[in-house]
Amino acid sequence: MNYFLLFVMILSVFSETPLSSSNPDLYGPCSKEFKCGNVSAGFPFWGGEDQRPPECGHPGLQLQCEDNHAAILEILSVRYRVLDIKKETKILKIAREDYKGGICRHNIQNTNLDATLFVSAPGYVNITLLYDCPVDLPALKNFSCGFHGFNSSKNFIHPEVFHGPMFCSASASVLVHVPSPTVEAIEQSLKDGFEIKWKVDDERCPKCLKSNGSCGIDPGNKTVCHCQEPGSSLEGCPVFPLPPGASQPPQPPSNANKRGPKNTINLENAMNTCEKYLYSFGVRWLTTYFSQ
Ligand SMILES: *[C@@H]1O[C@H](CO)[C@@H](O)[C@H](O)[C@H]1NC(C)=O
Ligand SMILES: *[C@@H]1O[C@H](CO)[C@@H](O)[C@H](O)[C@H]1NC(C)=O
Ligand SMILES: *[C@@H]1O[C@H](CO)[C@@H](O)[C@H](O)[C@H]1NC(C)=O
Ligand SMILES: *[C@@H]1O[C@H](CO)[C@@H](O)[C@H](O)[C@H]1NC(C)=O
Ligand SMILES: *[C@@H]1O[C@H](CO)[C@@H](O)[C@H](O)[C@H]1NC(C)=O
Ligand SMILES: *[C@@H]1O[C@H](CO)[C@@H](O)[C@H](O)[C@H]1NC(C)=O
């Protein structure tokens, strides 16, 4: 019987495992929104002081609120200011924070997107800014930057993707929405920002929200549902109505606490069946044995 109890305990541990990714302590924090300036964000974003903890969003979508008004998102070590979040279309409008002061930069980085998480929206061109080149490139538009060793009029705008600085000191790729860029248009476009689309699998989220849960992310970057009651599932919280195909009548959410005893009953039934089987097998063997 002790082994039986142990077996029951092991079984109930296994039956709880899929639920452990959902945590009622996270229901409250994950139903809060990140708010900063005129930007507010829910799932799949997280971050902010006392706002959304890491379990409430994708690890690549941490927001920071600077000076209580600027929402900042960092992508592959480049800081972007978040201008708009369109939840329905999963579109994020961001602007390079480092280029807000103009096109001349000392610390130069490409606009790289984490391809597992983002796709760039149509309508933007990836152009390349070339800094401090040794020669004139008459085919390209030039601009001057007079600081930090970039004291040169030989800086150029390459209107498309251009790999590497080549013979220039540095290069940076930036996304702009101007087809034939001038310096002024590029500077304005860098301030206006660009749109990207996030690719977080949140198919389960509407169902979760409908069942009064709040969405979060598990360690495998999969969407999970955090419920007010323990005993939640990946498919939403245990509230009415039951998912299609379920044959049990609706039960109050607190039935999660009865899980142990219920499993025990089922196991006892199984044990009885097993004993009956062994018993009838034995009887049959004895009958066969004695009839010979
Ligand atoms: C928030 O304000 C900035 C300017 O401060 C503006 O560019 C942006 O479009 C605004 N975003 C929203 C969602 O209103
Ligand atoms: C733009 O092109 C550069 C290559 O020069 C690349 O490294 C970068 O990832 C591209 N950016 C986007 C957003 O596609
Ligand atoms: C830039 O170079 C010019 C001459 O080429 C020089 O007169 C000027 O002082 C330099 N400016 C800086 C900031 O180094
Ligand atoms: C662009 O290049 C031309 C020719 O080298 C030069 O005269 C002009 O001053 C440059 N313009 C800027 C904005 O640096
Ligand atoms: C969700 O909660 C609200 C109020 O807390 C309640 O009125 C509603 O019935 C709940 N919905 C479900 C599906 O349980
Ligand atoms: C989750 O996403 C982060 C950021 O995009 C990534 O670094 C990490 O490898 C991902 N984890 C898994 C298990 O896919």
Automatic annotation (TrEMBL):
The keyword Electron transport does not apply. Keywords: Glycoprotein, Membrane, Signal, Transmembrane, Transmembrane helix. Its EC number is 2.7.11.1. The keyword Repressor does not apply. It is found in: Membrane. Its main location: membrane. GO terms for cellular component: membrane. One of its GO terms (molecular function) is protein serine/threonine kinase activity. Residues 30-96 form the Wall-associated receptor kinase galacturonan-binding domain. Residues 1-15 form the signal peptide. Residues 242-253 have a biased composition (Pro residues). Residues 167-229 form the Wall-associated receptor kinase C-terminal domain. Pfam families: GUB_WAK_bind, WAK_assoc. It is a single-pass membrane protein. It catalyses: L-threonyl-[protein] + ATP = O-phospho-L-threonyl-[protein] + ADP + H(+); L-seryl-[protein] + ATP = O-phospho-L-seryl-[protein] + ADP + H(+). Residues 242-264 are annotated as: Disordered. This is non-specific serine/threonine protein kinase. The lineage of its organism: Eukaryota, Viridiplantae, Streptophyta, Embryophyta, Tracheophyta.
